[in-house]
Amino acid sequence: MKKLIPLAVLLLSCLCVRTAAQQTRTELHKAYISPYDFINDKYKDIRIPGGDSTRLNRFFQKIDTLVRYGEGTINILHIGGSHVQADMFSHQVRRNLDAVNAGHRTPRGFIFPFSVAKTNNPANYRVTYSGEWKTARNVQSNREIPLGVGGIAVYTSDPAARIDISLNTDSLLRWDFDQLRLLGYVQDNSDGVTPVLYYNNDTIEGNLDLISKTYLFRLPAPDYSFSIGFIRNDSLPHTFVVNGFLPEKETPGIVYHAIGVNGASVPSYLNSENFEEELHLLKPDLVVFAIGINDALSKDFSSESFRRNYNELIAKMERVNPEGAYIFITNNDSYRKVSRRKYAVNRNGLVARKVFYQLAEEHRGGVWDLFSLMGGLGSMRSWQRAGLARADKVHFRKSGYLLIGDLFYNALIDYYKPSVPGESL
Fold first, then answer.
1. What are phi and psi of 68, to 5 degrees?
2. pTM score, two decimals?
């Protein structure tokens, strides 16, 4: 029978879980956090503004099947801006989900080599590279490279270009995969370049999947690292574009994809030309929407435009998976810099919060009200004084992101109530 085991968790430490192999039965774990007096526990749970919980309940029924029987593959997509690119908040949720993930480490899902783009890379995988690369981001108004679901790309015409990625170098957290999907293409649509996977002393050519327009590499044995290079098939210059990677393995469980680009707003993802096409590769059962902090930092922020843009983005999600579930995370409280040493509270956070509730009601989704949970308008200063937020009063420190990740995971577990007579979480 399922049982919730409370674990004392230090704020800066990881949630410690046992694998299914060490358990005689499935156990669910919840992260317990020492409370701060400025956090408003009234808003700790996921709310259903419209009262229709059909979508979320259907998603959690899939979780229940996984927990009870170890069956099913579940994709969660957490999408946002810099909060998500850093992958501290989202990775804390991912690590906590190990407890319900059929005895497996929860995979990282979609991966982008941010280090190649010379920007901050998540700490849970290591990237090195060689050769000359250029970058395109969805926050750029002028670019020559169409973008996909990740909202960012690196591209090269250098024959010596190479990317090396190692997933979770900490052996306690490592996961592996037995096939790798490269989201990429030759810019001139020719066959002048073939991507290759370097495996031990072998070179494996990528098979072009014409349906998904991706390159698929099958590994002789499961692994946790890979190296990608390119073979030139003629003497002409060709540019190869890399939109990201999907390490895959045919095992039941949850895959937690995190997609974020520094500075990205909702229009940024709308301007990613191949977003919907590549979203089919993820086909998320649950989308955690965390886009909005950059939209609301603008002085010209419009609730009407914000809602309209979100509806357009959700329409793309609907076309990919009409039965998917949605959770909207409201913007965190933030401040706007008005002079060298002066900050003013960003009242747009209140306006955006209202829109998130409207969107959740309209699309039968849930809301996790981070804005109110933090303490409401002006609360970012309290988080900063507690050492949880940065001086820019927009971003959090690692300790703050880990705390938010634990709180969001708790909200997910508190919502999930198995339909077992006489027992609940």
1. -75, -45
2. 0.91
